[in-house]
Amino acid sequence: MDNEQNKLVENHELLLEMYREMLRARRIDERMWILNRSGQIPFVVSCQGQEVSQVAAAFALDKDQDYALPYYRDLGVVLHFGMTTKELMLQAYGKADDPNSGGRQMPNHFGQKKNRIVTGSSPVTTQVPHAAGFALASKMEKKQAVSFVTMGEGSTNQGDFHEGLNYAAVQKLPVIFMVENNKYAISVPLNKQIACAKISDRALGYGMEGITVDGDDPFAVYKAVDEARKRALHHEGPTLIETVSNRLTGHSSDDNHLMYRTEEELDEAKEKDGIIQFKEYLKEQQILTDEKETEMEAEIKQEINEATEYAENASYADVTTLAHYVYSQEEAK
Amino acid sequence: MDNEQNKLVENHELLLEMYREMLRARRIDERMWILNRSGQIPFVVSCQGQEVSQVAAAFALDKDQDYALPYYRDLGVVLHFGMTTKELMLQAYGKADDPNSGGRQMPNHFGQKKNRIVTGSSPVTTQVPHAAGFALASKMEKKQAVSFVTMGEGSTNQGDFHEGLNYAAVQKLPVIFMVENNKYAISVPLNKQIACAKISDRALGYGMEGITVDGDDPFAVYKAVDEARKRALHHEGPTLIETVSNRLTGHSSDDNHLMYRTEEELDEAKEKDGIIQFKEYLKEQQILTDEKETEMEAEIKQEINEATEYAENASYADVTTLAHYVYSQEEAK
Amino acid sequence: MAVLTYIQAITQAMKEEMQQNEKVFVLGEDVGVKGGVFKATEGLIEEFGEERVIDTPLAESAIAGVGIGAAMYGMRPVAEMQFADFIMPAVNQIISEAAKIRYRSNNDWHCPIVIRAPYGGGVHGGLYHSQSVEAVFANQPGLKIVMPSSPSDAKGLLKAAIRDEDPVLFFEHKRGYRLLKEDVSEADDILPIGQAAVKKEGSDVTIITYGLCVHFAQQAAEKLESEGVTTEILDLRTVYPLDQEAIIAAASKTGKVLLVTEDNKEGSIISEVSAIINEHCLFDLDAPVRRLAAPEVPAMPFAPNLEKEFMMNPEKIERELRDLASF
Amino acid sequence: MAVLTYIQAITQAMKEEMQQNEKVFVLGEDVGVKGGVFKATEGLIEEFGEERVIDTPLAESAIAGVGIGAAMYGMRPVAEMQFADFIMPAVNQIISEAAKIRYRSNNDWHCPIVIRAPYGGGVHGGLYHSQSVEAVFANQPGLKIVMPSSPSDAKGLLKAAIRDEDPVLFFEHKRGYRLLKEDVSEADDILPIGQAAVKKEGSDVTIITYGLCVHFAQQAAEKLESEGVTTEILDLRTVYPLDQEAIIAAASKTGKVLLVTEDNKEGSIISEVSAIINEHCLFDLDAPVRRLAAPEVPAMPFAPNLEKEFMMNPEKIERELRDLASF
Ligand SMILES: Cc1ncc(C[n+]2csc(CCOP(=O)(O)OP(=O)(O)O)c2C)c(N)n1
Ligand SMILES: Cc1ncc(C[n+]2csc(CCOP(=O)(O)OP(=O)(O)O)c2C)c(N)n1
Ligand SMILES: [Mg+2]
Ligand SMILES: [Mg+2]
């Protein structure tokens, strides 16, 4: 365990904050499923099983300087970068005040300029060259900032992954590419997606650092991202980080994953749930008490309740706005 | 030196044939430059400096079973697969009887079904997924055939390279991917194209074999392709081969490479010319005599003279054919 | 005859073609065990095995490109793009390669691939699961673009596409998948690609449209029928290259033409239809050709009210139709 | 004033914008030391250094995608596609991303990128160095497509494109690069994107066209002038979204309209122009709107006779014009 990681281990407050963020992501996501199953919202795509990677990574960044280019599962990332529970609920309902898109995009298509969260789309992996572009620009402007971009392991097979990583590597741009490997691309298992042993094996072909870590281990993820950030800022180029964990839900609320996944596999995945492991660690270390936990859960629940009610009652964008913002100043027309 | 390579070393007739093919490619290409500079043909894109790789690789294939998906420099490959000097001249002039395209495509956009040369286009790297498709099909049909696809090193930065290699690796398809690394993509030098040490470093990320060989060494290239072919036919999957050599001309007849390349660099490259090295080896080994060489050169020269004259006098396609073959049976209209 | 939904007709077409010709195979994301995200390939992997029903890596350019390679070899690949919106990474393979292989090789090579993709909105798909993408490809000689409007057409046209000697883009309206049902012949019926079909005869106004909009047009036309206005409905079926003769006949017949698309207007399929009418039927027209289309915004938003505002529907068509009839 | 060729005007525009705004930078294949394969970026690396004149790896989706990222950040990237034909691998980035960033983020983010590419034929480029690709993009709200026809327009419009707050595709006719020359103002003149321009006044027939075809149209019109037939020439300049008002005015003025493009006809820019005229000027027309375009083949062949047969030229326009005038 090196210094940085040690510091983290000893910083109990930070660890509790991290845990709280993970828990918050999980509870928000769980609520969304309930809302979906009860017919309140049409669609959910989950972070469940990946919160530890997301939150630990985000904590190793400087959210006031760095840019995040998250993908649809990154509830944990956007929470840390400043999106509120209320805003997340607004986007789940597609309401006018959703800061991501004003209800224009499907849920979990994040973007919020004031929080340095770059707008994303549905076609996977397009954000990867964008991240190189942000890094190029911040390098040109001599800013001490990195761009942090995530994607699923399935998305690493798109051409844009290759082109984006290569571009960033050639020009030694300050980018962190983090692949959240949950072993499935919808129903397609890892062995039908790739033939290499690890996604991070791809780093060599770009001449960049590559590392695979246990995505359920917040210390390992934090350390990997922290080191990658330093490397980026020291002009040593980008890093490819692979965090391995499990998808605990179907691909989305439209997917029945038991059609291609066994109950046993799923049970095993649930046992390895990083949030539970982290909680146990925090309890063992007496950083988290039962009392504190109950309090945390209650606070989060209340926050979610309030946010849900607010979002439910919020209005949709007026239909007269449908044609706004196609081009600059369009609304003035 | 393993058996296969030994066999090659001892097979003097084969070595002479190989040398003859390389020389033929070189002399045809040289003639094309003369024709271009004297205003006879509008465009040349050269094989010069890469003939050794091309011909040695092609000799390790089974041209009656395998499919070749060459790129524009691969004069050596298509010659071995059966395209004649006359046909090459017809395509340089864009005449009706050009078997590649009937004068529709620019020179060196090869394709000739009867010789198992798959039609190619100008946008680089599109042929790479096609090669996987040919391999998939021949595997489905249980043929003992591989598909052999080439490209420049610059082209390995395209998305289609990544997607094509990954696809082939996942399904263990019988493909040989050969990258002819001449260290330039038009004017862009290697260090602005990639940050990895070798193009073959990319193989690891696909879970396939990767090897870099001296492209001026026919024995090394032959061995690499021969082994890759065996691997492919034994269902051990595709191979990425990088052959390193030099581009001895400008990128094309439209390019003045001394704008971005020094005379010294070029002189050095010319000294390493694989054809000259191979000739010296053959002479040292007394496989090639001065007499034989003179005879070969004369034969080739005559062949080229005849082909040039024939092509020059051949007709262009009739303008009434302009709209033929957009769709099936179009010509019947 | 059996009642099939639009998507069942599509599955049926692939199944029959795979049974009849072992060179036919399907490839795409999740087309195997999952049977596709809409279930278009359901049951195929069980019947034909994973050699002929291939779950691919998440890489559309490879799906198209590998398919193109296999097609040049002599196979009959049916590639699925999970959503039409995700065909964009494959545009280079489709436009630079598939469309040009026969022409550039002077008929030496050809490329009989089918690329299927669900298009269109009305399913809460937001910007990237609702698009109509046909206009991107409808200027590329060498390609054919088919967009069926009913289960029977879907089956007959998909079978024809698989047997076609040239590349065919086959766009299926995803909201039509379960909405549209009808008796579909069990016979090996093939419908000709390149021919539009008169879906309803009428003498007062003409609607020319395609895909799910044909269904909406039929509903609108029925409403006007009771008022004594009869509508000719021409279903383009193949939107590229267009069936000019049928368009000219349908337009000339009534002299009042309403063109309808779910796509936004500028640069859409119906712009070409209008141009054809303009070139050939000017003196037969009793009113300017009208185009009814989506607003000029990048794609359909997610929020239900915005989506509804964007989407084509029978009411919008009825309104225009009524207006045009009384011109 | 100085006489500049079309390509010099383009270089000049980039240079001036880079001088005035340090957020402007260029990226593309061979744009650095080589100055671009056509020399459009000649001299820029010497003046602005390799930080602002970036030779990229051979990867168009990255060129567009990295540019888009930098544009969202707040820079002003000018990306070069070496040939318009090679924009295809970048279509996903352009259509799914650049075009939709402002709309999908509800105006939170925007994407002021310019993507330049040489298009068009007549230079022995064969199928893949001659294409007109504008129609692929001319149905995507959020994008603008500019195709200048003269050195002055090229300069003023490129400067406007670089200052524009939205993504602009800027297609330059490669045969025009050295063919077209004229006096170009040295002032910091900006031409408005979205506005067509009357390049010649006339009262008998109207030609509406864009790009190099404007030049051919002018030559054709001159021929007819001596015979007493005067031609109004409208240069679209921005081919998407179209300047409807100008089109309507130009078409109504003479009632006889010839639309010209170097692209093949079906699904081209001039199809939309025809549809607009049809919608708005039906009763002002004295003859059907005519479209003069390339044959419906995938692209221009290499052989000089075939290329010539395919290419637009003054003679073809003159023939149609004469015919239309006497209608
Ligand atoms: C270009 C593109 N193709 C297909 C899809 C449909 N799709 C959405 S998510 C997904 C799987 C993504 O897998 P992975 O990258 O591993 O991310 P995960 O969902 O597992 O986190 C697919 C195929 C898409 N969104 N974009
Ligand atoms: C998609 C695409 N972009 C750009 C070009 C223009 N172009 C032709 S060859 C070339 C360089 C190719 O370099 P490399 O792959 O190393 O092959 P080499 O010519 O060196 O053999 C470029 C940029 C092209 N043909 N296709
Ligand atoms: Mg995954
Ligand atoms: Mg090279």
From TrEMBL, chains A, B:
UniProt keyword annotations, A-Z: Oxidoreductase, Thiamine pyrophosphate
Keyword Flavoprotein: no
Its EC number(s): 1.2.4.4
Co-factor requirement: thiamine diphosphate
First-tier enzyme category under EC: oxidoreductase
GO molecular function terms attached to this record: branched-chain 2-oxo acid dehydrogenase activity
Pfam family membership, one: E1_dh
Segments forming domain Dehydrogenase E1 component: 20-318
InterPro entries: Alpha-ketoacid_DH_E1_comp, DH_E1, THDP-binding
Gene Ontology biological process terms from the UniProt entry: branched-chain amino acid catabolic process
Record field: catalytic activity: N(6)-[(R)-lipoyl]-L-lysyl-[protein] + 3-methyl-2-oxobutanoate + H(+) = N(6)-[(R)-S(8)-2-methylpropanoyldihydrolipoyl]-L-lysyl-[protein] + CO2
Family: Belongs to the BCKDHA family.
Known function: The branched-chain alpha-keto dehydrogenase complex catalyzes the overall conversion of alpha-keto acids to acyl-CoA and CO(2). It contains multiple copies of three enzymatic components: branched-chain alpha-keto acid decarboxylase (E1), lipoamide acyltransferase (E2) and lipoamide dehydrogenase (E3).
PANTHER family documented for this protein: 2-OXOISOVALERATE DEHYDROGENASE SUBUNIT ALPHA, MITOCHONDRIAL (PTHR43380:SF1)
Name of the protein in its database record: 2-oxoisovalerate dehydrogenase subunit alpha
UniProtKB/TrEMBL annotation, chains C, D:
Keyword RNA-binding listed: no
Swiss-Prot/TrEMBL keywords: Oxidoreductase, Thiamine pyrophosphate
GO MF: oxidoreductase activity
Cofactor needs: thiamine diphosphate
Domain Transketolase-like pyrimidine-binding residue range list: 4-179
InterPro entries: THDP-binding (IPR029061), Transketo_C/PFOR_II (IPR009014), Transketolase-like_Pyr-bd (IPR005475), Transketolase_C (IPR033248)
UniProt xrefs under Pfam families: Transket_pyr (PF02779), Transketolase_C (PF02780)
The keyword Oxidoreductase appears for this protein: yes
Protein name per Swiss-Prot or TrEMBL: 2-oxoisovalerate dehydrogenase subunit beta
Source organism of this protein record: Gracilibacillus halophilus YIM-C55.5
Native organism taxonomy: Bacteria, Bacillati, Bacillota, Bacilli, Bacillales
